[in-house]
Records
---
Amino acid sequence: MKGWWGRVLRVDLSRGEVKIHELDKDVLLKFMGGRGLAAWFLWNELRAGVDPLSPENKLVLAVGPLTGLPGPSTGKMVIAAKSPLTGGYGDGNIGSWAAVNLKRAGFDAVIIEGRAKRPSYLYIEDDKAYILSAEGLWGKTTFEAERILKEAHGKDCGILTIGPAGENKVLYATIISQEGRSGGRPGMGAVMGSKNLKAIVVKGTKEVSVADKDKVLKIAAEALKSIRESRGYSFWVRQGTMATIEWAQTAAVLPTYNFREGTFDMYRLIDGYSMEAAKVLQRSCPGCIMPCGNVVMDSEGKYSELDYENVAMLGSNMGLGHLGKVAVLNRLADELGLDTISLGNCLGFLIEASEKRLISEKIEWGEFKELRELVVDTAYRRGLGNLLAEGVKRMAHKIGGGSERWAMHVKGLEISAYDCHGAPAMALAYGTSAIGAHHKDAWVISWEVKVDRFGYGREKVAKVIELQRIRGGVFECLVACRLPWVELGLELRYYVELLRAITGYSYTLDDLYKLGDRVYTLIRAFWVREYASSWSIEMDIPPARWFEEPLSRGPIKGAKLDRDKYLEMLRTYYSLRGWDERGIPRVSTLEELGLKEVAAELSRFVELKP
Ligand code: PTT
Ligand code: SF4
């Protein structure tokens, strides 16, 4: 096959074995790569109810036909496993030289299972892999571990590592690369830690064979030209995702004080302009011509790479209006291997719990010194850090006092940095995202704010599904960064044309949309199988705060969601997706998407409607 190797590397850490096996062509055509392949492996290979932190769980790394080839921002990969935070399907998308190298090493995916007896790391190089000792690496931060491994294996390899948070199985520990790229929000770092796997080092030098090389180069050059000449290009290179702080403030969706408000009085102190003034470096994922890794010097004199989500969650959401200090917390999260979004949620929740006297400790909004200590304690599970390490859903369960109403999560995954008091479609996007409350699958809020702020109509539901197809389906399976399309309007036809030139198959955009629907429905089946009789539509409903406590200030003061109307939207969503009124895929839908065998398996756990 062209564009794929048709090969998977399987690593059994318990037995200390590595094996290579062929991948069925039909599976590749049906699930493509990245999230599609990962979901297919996890569906087929995991027993329902498996403990996510046991050796039985599997960690999948998957690239796609576009990964690492000439094109718009293709240095990305998907990392997936059953999530210890949510108990459902979990994944993340990371930009790293590890992605490019994995493709060049001759594999479409790596499946890691078992648990090593001693701390280990995986070294992959051109068709081969070795499990090596990580004795001297265990306990190191992600930055230290990556530097040591670079010295050992050379600068030309790609490296993924976990920090102390992953080692200590913090439920939202992530995997870090290149001192500022993070992947796997729903605890992929904890899964790696549970396997005693500190790092994955990849070196690849093989040439990927494509169907029409000249055409690939031509389309890639046209796409890059279109990116460079786009209207927003120069501003994007200046501020990247950090421009969103100002937009979110204006739209009153900037998470503030644990999502109590959507505006922050000190937003100017943490916005894209403040970042520009402090910027010392610009980084990017491999081969990207629209770099968005904006690095500032933090208040402790160290480099910290900032993104919107990080700054909103560790800044306004905790009442901290000081960019240098926010940058310290962000850099610590990267060094320790903690997801900034979940961390900012957990800390905001804890401060509110303290304010409401549900815990005895006194923690104030914006108190940097205490927050800094709590971040480190979380990674090591010390004191209150042990509570913070569990995520807001479990924290609320432990603290009680009605705190579940303002524990900001869906399905156990903490909400990303968009307040939804006045954004019903975005609330639905969180409610129905494939991994819990993450914006990656449908960042519908920018469209919603522009087009119809407070409506609950059918066109909003259709828009959420359309975005889930493209963002959660197409980009996650190809695998490529979605930002050239989202931020600079790069037309989707470039991706389709590239895919055709790479694989030689005559894909259409509709084929890719169907792929998106297939993968989304397969992931839904995974969730339902895990939760079986306890599955309920409550799983798709965002936290009570947005329905019960109106915004007390700002341009949309008084805004809150309407529960009945949200439920109506959810019913329309299920119906458009071909799922029943419980949000469970119908047999006819599964069959139509080529998932007949999934229907047979799922019907062992719940009764399926025709
Ligand atoms: C992603 C999530 C995001 S989404 C951000 S900022 W964003 C946070 N970044 C973190 C970080 O940094 N350090 C840390 N310790 N934790 C972090 N948690 C948060 O993780 C990221 C970019 C961004 S920046 C976004 S939107 C886009 N996401 C893409 C995606 O999901 N798919 C895709 N095909 N392309 C994407 N392009 C963009 O990539 P998760 P990255 Mg990320 C420091 O991992 O688990 O998906 O969560 O991968 O290489 O850091 O690039 O305003
Ligand atoms: Fe990476 Fe940003 Fe480029 Fe996307 S736009 S590939 S996230 S540097």
Note: Residues 509-531 form the longest helix (23 residues).
---
Amino acid sequence: MKSINDVNFKGKKVLLRVDFNVPLNDRKEITDDTRMRESMPTIKKLLDDGAALIIMAHFGRPKKGGFEEEFSLNPVAKHLSEMLGKSVLFTQEVLVDTVAGFSANLEDGDVMLLENIRFYPEETKGDIGFAEKLAKLGDAYVNDAFGTAHREHSSTATIARFFPNDKYFGFLMESEVKNLEKLIHNPKKPFTAIVGGSKVSSKIDILKNLAPIVDNIIIGGGMTYTFLKAMGINIGTSICEEDKVEMAKELMKDMEKNNTKLILPIDHIIADKFSNDANTRMTSDQSIPDGFMGMDIGDKSIEMFKNIILDSKTILWNGPMGVFEMSSFAKGTFAIAEYIAKSTKEGAFSAVGGGDSVAAINQSGFAKDVSYISTGGGAMLEYLEGKVLPGIKAIID
Ligand code: AMP
């Protein structure tokens, strides 16, 4: 993998694709600039070398084709300028043709941010003509947008064709790719995947792809109950995808064939309604009485999962163990975070990814104690499903 570290970009105009899709409040203030901070090492390296930057980013999902105030990167441009302590040339124009003039006049160390690249419908189609126009703006291409690596868009994938010898991963992308490869190719054994969240349907492909790779799959969260139902166990009013019960049966057979242990919770915290102030209690076994729903894993399950986690050398966590957004049902999820952190301290490699798991590990206070937290929810999930990510392939090919 060619790293930007091996190259000096002095005097080059670098087209840099980043993921600056940050959350804004009603006053158009950035409420969390994590994504911007994560690409700072790449930006700083390129600027320290003496490159001029042409930054490409998207914001939200504009639909109309053309400028829409609501999706403008203007607040991001202002914040970027503050972060860098220098002015950023923000191209309000939507047409790439107009921008070419600005680009031609950029000097070493200058930073230009293009307006939301998705104002062009060509972008999400991966249009080659559009990619070529973009490519003409610079001399090298660096992709640091792991969050969009699963999209075959003009600025995330197609554009790389125009830089056969000058295309690179930024530091963030490079680290994501290295960590994911470490996880899927030659992981240290035992390898345990902990998969939770609300639905089996959204995790089926991951479970199928992981089955031959991992030793243990721990299931938690709402998807537990579709599996228990498949086993003929009473699940009360717990969340269940009736139409996925057969699929759950097949998955269980799949695991058996692959000698992968599928481990389900053996007890639960149950509630009489989906609410933090519901009447709750812990079951003594796997079954759930009528009128109650499973909301979190129980103490015996936590203990069982803990032992497996502490015995593992590679751990992947995706999806909470319960409705952790409600304090009454957060214990299982936070306990898992704690034991993953402990196992990591004892030498395991741990990876956490997927929107809710990242929120959960952050809330648990153990985020700093795991080996790797993925910044790309959808991209990481597709990688774990065994798909080739166009943003990665475009650079490697
Ligand atoms: P996902 O996006 O599929 O990873 O699901 C995450 C969501 O699953 C979170 O919002 C959790 O509140 C929810 N969840 C976890 N456990 C349960 C459960 N036992 N019943 C209903 N929802 C759950």
Note: Residues 197-199, 202, 221-222, 239, 294-295, 319-320, 322-323, 325, 354, 356 surround adenosine monophosphate (CB under 6 Å).
